[in-house]
Amino acid sequence: MLVAEDVLLAVTDDSTGKLLVSGAEADIALGGALLVELALRERVDVAGPDERVHEGRLTVRDPGPTGDDVLDDALAVVVAREGKKPESVVTKLGKHVRDRLYERLVAAGLLRAEEGRILGLIPTERWPTEDVRHESEVRAGLAQALQNGTTADERTAALISLLLALNAVHKVIDPATLGLQKRELKARARQIAEGDWAGRSVRRAIDSMNAAIIAATSSASHGGGGGV
């Protein structure tokens, strides 16, 4: 499972199949998750001094096939934009990937697709949970990490960091189930996100996603838009 798939499962309500965040935020988060995945697999990096691209820009360490079609397409996007700032790539990576991931999760038997219409006119799709076992394991790992304020698993730490950037940790893990207040849960999440588990490229990917979400929500608040 990709980190992006776990992000999408986490922010999709099990019962209603609807997103717990806006569509724009979800798409940026998925782009950030794909960049994080590529960084964790050491396919892409953020350049240091004296490299072939400017310091702080994206550089490709290994352009070879990953064995995953969604990740291969994401890597191709980065290859085409090598030398760009991470924040300029995150939004591009998230475009049109949400439906692909939903379809994969349906094919894996984790979700089911339900079609409907609003007022009998506007077509809608929902993705309620079909098999909760994988998501339950992921949530258990998240809960344990948040309870302790630390984790040795970099993928759990990455997922928490991405959810923190989305301001969605409390929507995924009810703080009351851990005996915590919302602010305490967020503090635990931030403690994990700021830990030493992440290399420079992973941290820049998450920071870039966070900046893109802030920019998107600010734009929506000033001019309208967004939505699922």
Tell me what the structure shows.
The strands form 2 sheets. A two-stranded antiparallel ribbon has the order 1-2. A two-stranded antiparallel sheet has the order 3-4. The chain starts with a helix and ends in a 5-residue tail after the last helix. With 228 residues, it is mainly alpha-helical. A hairpin with a 3-residue loop joins strand 3 (114-118) and strand 4 (122-126). The longest helix is centred in the last third of the chain and has 24 residues, at 200-223. The model is unreliable at 220-228 (pLDDT under 50). The chain is 55% helix and 7% strand. It has a domain at 3-131 and 200-223: yeast vps74-n-term truncation variant domain like (yeast vps74-n-term truncation variant fold, Orthogonal Bundle). Helix 1 (3-10) packs antiparallel against helix 2, helix 6 (133-148) packs across helix 9 and helix 7 (154-165) packs parallel to helix 10 (200-223). Pfam families: GPP34. One of its GO terms (biological process) is retrograde vesicle-mediated transport, Golgi to endoplasmic reticulum. Keywords: Golgi apparatus, Lipid-binding, Membrane.
